Description:
A: 777 residues, 4-stranded antiparallel sheet, 19% helix, B: 2 helices, Intraflagellar transport protein 20 homolog (chain B)
Amino acid sequence: MRLKTSLLKEPKHRELVSCVGWTSADELYSCSDDHQILKWNLLSNDTSVVVKLQDEIYPIDLHWFPKTVSGKKQAVAEIFALTSSDGKLHLVSKSGRIEKSVEAHRGAVLAGRWNYDGTALITAGEDGQLKIWSKSGMLRSTLAQQGTPVYSVAWAPDSGRVLYTSGRQLVVKPLQPNSKVLQWKAHDGVILKVDWSAVNDLILSGGEDCKYKVWDSYGRLLFSSAPHDYPITSVAWAPDGELFAMGSFHTLRLCDKTGWSYSLEKPSTGSLLSLCWSADGTQLAGACGNGHVLFAHIVEQRWEWKNFEITLTKRRTMQVRNVLNDAVDVLEFRDRVIKASLAHGHLVVTTSLQCYVYSAKNWNTPLIFDLKEGTVSLIVQAERHFLLVDGAEVYVYSYEGRLISSPKSPGMRMDILNSQSISLSNDTIAIRDTTDERVVFLFEAQTGKAIGDGKPLIHKIEVVLIALDQCGSSNDRRIALIDKNRDLYLTSVRKLGRAHSIYKIGSMVDTMAWNDSANILCGIQDNRFTVWYYPSVVFVDKDLLPKTIFTKDSSEFSRPPQMVSYVGSQVTVRRVDGSLVCTAVSPYPTLLHEYTSSARWEDALRICRFAKDQTLWSCLAGLAVANRELSTAEVAYAAIGEIDKVQYINFIKDLPSKDSCLAHILLFSGHVQEAEATLLQANLIYHAIQIHINLYSWDRALELAVKYKTHVDTVLAHRHKFLQDFGKQETNKRFLQYSEGVEVDWEKIQAKIEMEFAKERERAANSSVRSSVSVRR
Amino acid sequence: MAKDPLAEAGLHFDELNKLRVLEPDVSQKTTELKEECEEFVDKIGQFQKIVGGLIELVDELAKEAETEKMKAIGARNLLKSVEKQREAQHQQLQALIAEKKMQLERYRIEYEALQKVEAEQSEFIDQFILQK
Lengths: 777, 132
C-alpha cells in the first residue's frame, strides 16, 4: 500500500499554505498567507478564489463544521472555523462570507476544532489558553491556562475530554471540572501536532524531536518512530482509524495504526503544515510550505483470501490474480473504490454510490446495488451475508444483494464502529456499545431484533475485542471476548432459559480469531501461540479445557501481534513491524469438527486413532458429551485416561430411563440446577433428592423432600449417617426441626428406594422402545 | 610724422579705408585673440568629448566587471548549493532506501514463515502417506 501524490507545476498560492479542509470527497478549501481562500474541485480540476481576506488576517487553522450532527446528516458542510494570527476566531460560510469574528486570544490562535457532534468549538492560543465556544461563536468557558503556547488540540471520541499540547507534554483534560487530568511527557522536543482517532481511540503526536508516537487514551506508549531529519509538522488519522498520515519537510508517510510505515514519499512541498483526509478516507490533502497544495490517494492496497490476491491498481481498477493458475482478471468501477473486503468466497467493494459483490467463482458479473448513504466505513463478512457500516447505520445484506436487516440501538454511534467492536456470524450480530464498553448488544442477523429478552450482555469490565464463532447451529452460537485485563471469556449468545454462564478460558490474551470453517479459536496467550481446538468444552466438561489446547512458541510473532485471518488451517498474524507471518495449524481438529457435526462418530474415532494425539482425543470426548454420544465419549475418555469419567458414563448408560440419563449427562457437565429441573419435570423426585444428597447439598435435598412430601426420612437418614461418620453434632435448625417428628428406619428407606428404581424401570419400559434405544445407541 | 588729428580724436582708418574707433593693431589683435579663444573652446570641447567617452567606457567596463563578479559569486554559490542539494537528495534517497529495506525485511520474514509452513505441510503429507 502506498500514497500516490500529485502536485501542480506552479503553486496556486503565492505564500505558504497554512491549512486545508475537505467539504466533500472532491472539494477542498485551502487558506494561505497570501490572504486568499481557494476552492479546489477535483472532478473538474478547477481552482477558484473563494474570497480574499483582509490584509491583517493570516489564517492558521481551518476546521469544517462536522457533517453528522446528532444522527442527522447534512449533505455538505456549510460553515467552517478559521483562526488567524491576530488572535481572532472567524466563522466563515461556504461562500467565503465571514459570518462572525471574535477576539479569541492574545497572540495568534493556533488551533480551532469542532467537537464530533458540532455543539462546541475549542480554540488554543499562543497565550496558553484553551477556550470553548458555542456553535454560534459565544465564549462558554476557558478550559485551561498555561505558560506556554498550545500548538495543537484534539477532541476525545466522546467529546467529553480534550487532548492538548503543553511544551513537551501531552495533557488530556475532561470538560467536567474537578475530574482527573492526565498529563505525561511525550516527546523530547516541543510537540507540534496531535490527533485522536474517534474509531480506535488512539492518540497520535508529532514534535520537534523529529519523532511521531502512537499512544492509547490512557497515555501508554504503543509506538515511537525512529527520528526523522526534520520536525514532524503534521499528523492525521484516516477516518476509519486503520491508517494515519504524517508530514514533515519534503516528507509524507503513510502508516498503519500500530505505527509501522507502509510507504514514504518525498514530494517537493516544503514543510507539510497540515494534513487532512476526506470523509470517505480515500483522499489526502496537505498544506505545503511552498504554496502548493498536495493531493494524494491510496493505491496498491491488497487483499488475500485462499488462492486469490487482489490489488487496487488505480483508483477505479482492481486486479484479481488467481495464484494457482496465474489467471488475471481486471475489475473496473465507475467511481472511486472506498472500501473492499474479501472473505468467504466473496469480494465486496463499495464506491461512493454503489456496492459491488463478486463471487470468487465468477469475476465477470458482479451484483451491483445502490448504497443508502455512500460513506461505508466498515465491511464485515460472514459465510451467508455481510454487513456494511454506512454512515450512522448498520445494514446486513445477503450476497444476492438483498437487504436483510438493519439492527438499531438507541444512543449507539454506529459510525465509530471498528472491526474489533463488531462481529458477524450467519445468524447473529454482536456490537460493543460505544458509550459503555462493558456492554455487548446481540442481534438476530435475519431480523435485526435483539436476541432473547433484548437484554445486552454486560461484562464486568471494558471489553476490548469481540468475536462470534462462525459454524454450527444458531443455538450453540458462542461469543468470545477479550476484556481490558486481557482475559479471554467465552459465553453462549442464546441462553435458552439458563443463566448467562460466562467462562474464562484464557488470560494475557493479546488477540484472537475464530476459524472460518470450524469452531476453533486461536490466539496469542502470554507470548505463546494458542489454539483452543474446542473452546465450547467449558460448557460440557470444564476440566477438559486445558487438554484441548494446543500451544507453541510465538517468539516469531513479537509483541503485541495482530491476528489477520484464520482460514482453513492457516493463521496469518501481523507483527508489530508490519510483516505478515503465516503459521499452520493441524488439520485434524477441523476434520474432527466436520465429522462430529455430521454425526459420523466412527470416522471421528478413526481419525483420533490415526493421529494418536491426546488433545484430539480430549476434543472428541468433549464433542461426544456435548452431543450425548456416550459410547464415543467412553472411548475418548478412556484414551485420555480419565477413568472416573468412563465409569460415570458407564453408569449413565445403565440408567433405565431417558430422563435420568439426560439429567446425569447434565450433572456430568456440572449443570446441577438443570439436572434437577429435568428430573423434577419427569416426576423423578427421589432422583432429584438423591443428586443433592450425593453432592452434600443437604439444605436443598431437604427442601425438595419437604416440598414434595416424600423421602424426608431418607434425607434425614443420610444426613445422620454423614454426621456420624464425621463425628459431628447436628447444628442445622431445619434438620433439628424435622428430625424430631421423623423416625429413621434404614430398612424401610432401602425398600422405598428400591421401589423408586423399580417404578422408574417400569415407566421406561412402558415408554416407546425406540426412544430408549436412541438414548443408548 | 605729425600727429594725426583723427587719431587724436580716436578715429582711425583701416586698410580698406573704413573709419574705425579702435586702432587697427588693437583690432587685429582682438580678432586674433577671438580666433584663438574660439580655437581654445573648440579644443576644450573636443577634450571634454574624449574624456566623456573615456569615462563612459570605463563605466561600462566597471559595470561589466561588476556583473562578471556577481556571476562568479552566483556560480560559486550555486556550486555550494548544488553540493547541499545533492546532500539533500542523498538524504532523501537514503530515507527511501531505508523504507525499501524495511519492506524487504518484512517480505523476508513473511517468506521465511511461508517456507516454514511449506516444510511443515510437506512433512505432514509424508507422514500421512507413510502411515497409510
